[in-house]
Amino acid sequence: MGRKWNNIKEKKASKDANTARIYAKFGREVYVAAKQGEPDPESNQALKVVLERAKTYSVPKAIIDRAIEKAKGGSEENYDELRYEGFGPSGAMVIVDTLTNNVNRTAAEVRSAFNKNGGNMGVSGSVTYMFDATAVIGMEGKSADEVLELLMEADIDVRDVLEEDEAVIVYAEPDQFHAVQNVFKDAGITEFTVAELTMLPQNEVELPADAQAQFEKLIDALEDLEDVQQVYHNVDLGE
After folding, report:
1. Domain TACO1/YebC-like second and third: where (predicted)?
2. How many angstroms separate the CA atoms of 82 and 239, rounded?
3. pLDDT digits over 136-149, tens only?
4. Whose CB among 99, 106, 126, 186 lies 3.0–4.6 Å from 122's, allowing a Cys bridge?
5. Residue 165 is part of a domain; what is its CATH number?
């Protein structure tokens, strides 16, 4: 797939280590998922995905419970899920997913982040066609061959299975997320290093050193925005 998923996640975790930002973003995402359906992950697949992701980022149970209780309580707080697309330095492609209760504010802040960091906003569809929606599930304690065998026995055909650092990462269709996880859970695997529904670029690009430094500032500026949940891009930032 061209991307070292564990290295990407490690960098993000390091960046967020001393802040409550990542917890706030998950709290909002859990609330929205719980409010849109039943506040029970067994009957609400969207909520189940969010909770699986939250576990891999060690989000405290108290934050998750608070968000679910808020949804159960009939809170009138509503959020719109919006996706913005744009270009960074040297034409790098960027996708920004947001949850917002103020569309005008979010649009202005995202546009400003692009403009101040050598980028510009694109129209809907200008970038996403170069990315694939993908389920990414990783675990330790199994080899790639063992994981492939488990999937074959369950008659599940995935996109790829790769050994990355000390983990095995499975790349699958988004609608296979729960099926793949259930195969591993049935085999006694209960902890996952990654459990994401994400957007992966079909091809990565390398930027000159000066453009890469500016691009990283753009990504940081976008991720720092309160309403931004996820930022995806096609730049190889190295390890």
Report:
1. 79-235
2. 30
3. 999 998 999 999 99
4. 126
5. 3.30.70.980
